[in-house]
Design brief:
alpha/beta; two-stranded antiparallel sheet; 15 helices
Length: 338
């Protein structure tokens, strides 16, 4: 969910329809906590997810303070999503080296949980030391009492090591470009890590773990028009969200068998031809990672996500007008089980 003029209208309708949560992103435009606070004041039941709060943008203590504040103001509706972003944003926008992201994320989550539990924050890690050992700082405790000291933490993850970390230390995974037919290895990485960490319940290590998949939805009888609607978004990530040497989404497309398309899209995007890159997104890739077509086709295909292990379907309605976006929300409320 971005910062469109109809954002509030869409979220309030989702709240009325019984949607479980709404997720607000941040990159290098609007920040997610401010938008979530604004939405919290004008909704009643819907969960309010940061998808994500960027790890390089905030200290772990600042993230804990923000999470505790949002959870308090929303009466326990906040969901904390975290992500390291990518090297271009981390180093170019925040001035934070994109080095050892797995280790930094693990320590970051440790400190956030420690602070939210209102324990004195003392941490001696490879990336974070609190208090600093050579100054006047002292171990401090969060002064407010959040409704849930164990509020759920989600990690945005793409590669196998990040997915394993999400399974080990988080309560949920924020997935993007998830294809039900190609997600077996991704979910296996999460499941194996949770099993190794003794998480879950009984014999099911995935019990209590929320798999949130953001899925573009385009309702139309024209499948090519549907492909064209999601193609710029797909091309941006596969072609331009990273360098030629380091682009997690390009690797993801390759893991799904779209090697040739991933090469072409990236070549065109990095050559300054985003429209041509979008035109090069094949129908098979768009259709695998989105819900496209008339209502009956979408209703027929939506069950693939639950069958694959997705527990929360985050609907991204692609339409030109507010009435059409609202209609997409209503359609998905009808066709998604539960």
């Amino acid at each position: 969910m971005g910062m469109g003029e109809d954002l509030l209208e869409l979220v309030q309708e989702a709240d009325r329809l019984g949607y479980a949560s709404v997720w607000v992103a941040e990159a290098y435009g609007s920040d997610s906590p401010t938008v979530l606070a604004w939405l919290a004041a004008q909704t009643e039941r819907i969960g309010l997810g940061a998808g994500v709060m960027q790890i390089p943008a905030r200290t772990p203590a600042m993230t804990a303070m923000t999470a505790a504040t949002l959870d308090t103001l929303s009466h326990g509706r906040f969901l904390l999503g975290l992500g390291v972003s990518g090297p271009q944003v981390s180093e170019g926008w925040h001035g934070v080296r994109f080095a050892q992201p797995l280790g930094r994320t693990r320590e970051y989550v440790d400190i956030v949980r420690m602070a939210l539990a209102r324990r004195p924050v003392e941490y001696d890690g490879a990336h974070f030391q609190l208090p600093l050992p050579d100054g006047p700082g002292k171990s401090l405790r969060l002064t407010i009492h959040p409704p849930r000291p164990d509020l759920p933490i989600y990690l945005a993850a793409v590669g196998p090591k990040n997915l394993a970390l999400a399974g080990e230390v988080a309560d949920g995974w924020l997935a993007i470009f998830l294809s039900p037919e190609h997600s077996g290895d991704q979910l296996a990485a999460v499941r194996d890590a949770r099993a190794a960490a003794g998480r879950g319940a009984g014999t099911d290590p995935m019990d209590g773990f929320d798999v949130v998949a953001t899925v573009p939805v385009v309702v139309t009888d024209d499948l090519e028009a549907a492909r064209a609607a999601v193609a710029p978004y797909t091309a941006l990530y596969i072609g331009g969200m990273g360098s030629r040497e380091q682009n997690f989404y390009n690797r993801l497309a390759r893991s799904m068998g779209f090697d040739e398309a991933a090469d072409t899209i990236q070549d065109l995007y990095l050559a300054g031809r985003p429209r041509d890159a979008a035109a090069a997104v094949p129908m098979e890739l768009a259709d695998a990672t989105a819900l496209l077509g008339p209502p009956e086709r979408i209703a027929e295909r939506v069950g693939r996500y639950a069958d694959a292990g997705v527990t929360t379907l985050s609907v991204a309605p692609y339409a030109r007008t507010t009435p059409d976006r609202l209609a997409t929300l209503r359609l998905m409320a009808e066709v998604v089980p539960g």
